[in-house]
């Protein structure tokens, strides 16, 4: 059983790294952002509810997000653990996840904190906007997502630090290099 989170500012490379790390550890990488985007694309009721919120770079209400994660964690592939990418993002979500873990009779094992300079991540997001055309990758929304991160999500690092769960990794460098750093840091905590 391996229950992990990956946390860091938008553009730090969480999504890319989450998929690679999860594969190595044989657990699913679960990205709430990906789930929302898939629902928007398929025009589901949830997608219609959250589309404008994502476009503004704001957070989807905790009630919706928490239910989605609770459902996802009940799926078969998550029975041996999970790597959550982009969740939790608020103190309320941390509390909810604590409840889910308690119900499962489990706990978190580590929180990978991807560290990246703000100017660097903004540049990366603008590049991704040009390449992939994500509708929330325009300059104004990027700025808002950064503000939301600083205000709502960055403080969560303190919560996890007080639980001694933080594994800090430099997110700047080649993708392979960063993956290697994360795997080594996790292995240092007995997670492999
Ligand atoms: P991401 O792909 O993780 O950058 O997420 C893209 C967008 O989805 C965010 O800007 C939010 O609008 C929404 N979102 C993703 N995860 C969450 C979450 N845990 N809580 C609230 N909103 C979220």
From TrEMBL:
ATP binds at residues 11-16, 128, 173. SUPFAM superfamilies: P-loop containing nucleoside triphosphate hydrolases. NCBIfam families: PRK00279.1-3, PRK14527.1, PRK14528.1, PRK14531.1, PRK14532.1. Catalyzes the reversible transfer of the terminal phosphate group between ATP and AMP. Plays an important role in cellular energy homeostasis and in adenine nucleotide metabolism. It is found in: Cytoplasm. It comes from Candidatus Agrococcus pullicola. InterPro entries: Adenylat/UMP-CMP_kin (IPR000850), Adenylat_kinase_CS (IPR033690), P-loop_NTPase (IPR027417). One of its GO terms (cellular component) is cytoplasm. Monomer. It catalyses: AMP + ATP = 2 ADP. It holds the Pfam family ADK. Keywords: ATP-binding, Cytoplasm, Kinase, Nucleotide biosynthesis, Nucleotide-binding, Transferase. Residues 31-60 are annotated as: NMP. Consists of three domains, a large central CORE domain and two small peripheral domains, NMPbind and LID, which undergo movements during catalysis. The LID domain closes over the site of phosphoryl transfer upon ATP binding. Assembling and dissambling the active center during each catalytic cycle provides an effective means to prevent ATP hydrolysis. This is Adenylate kinase. GO terms for molecular function: AMP kinase activity; ATP binding. AMP binds at residues 32, 37, 58-60, 86-89, 93, 134, 145. Pathway: Purine metabolism; AMP biosynthesis via salvage pathway; AMP from ADP: step 1/1. Its EC number is 2.7.4.3. One of its GO terms (biological process) is AMP salvage. The keyword Transferase applies. Belongs to the adenylate kinase family.
């Amino acid at each position: 059983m391996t229950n992990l989170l990956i946390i860091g500012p938008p553009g730090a490379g969480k999504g890319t790294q989450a998929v690679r790390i999860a594969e190595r550890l044989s657990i699913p990488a679960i990205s709430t952002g990906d789930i929302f985007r898939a629902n928007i694309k398929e025009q589901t009721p949830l997608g219609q509810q959250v589309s404008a919120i994502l476009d503004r770079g704001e957070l989807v209400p905790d009630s919706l997000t928490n239910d989605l994660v609770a459902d996802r964690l009940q799926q078969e592939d998550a029975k041996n653990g999970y790597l959550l990418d982009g969740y939790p993002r608020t103190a309320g979500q941390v509390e909810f996840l604590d409840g889910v873990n308690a119900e499962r009779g489990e706990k978190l094992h580590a929180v990978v904190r991807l560290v990246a300079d703000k100017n660097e991540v903004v540049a990366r997001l603008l590049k991704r906007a040009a390449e992939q055309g994500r509708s929330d990758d325009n300059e104004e929304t990027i700025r808002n997502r950064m503000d939301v991160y600083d205000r709502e999500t960055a403080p969560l690092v303190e919560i996890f630090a007080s639980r001694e769960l933080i594994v800090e990794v430099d997110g700047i460098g080649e993708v392979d290099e960063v993956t290697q750093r994360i795997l080594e840091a996790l292995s240092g905590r007995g997670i492999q």
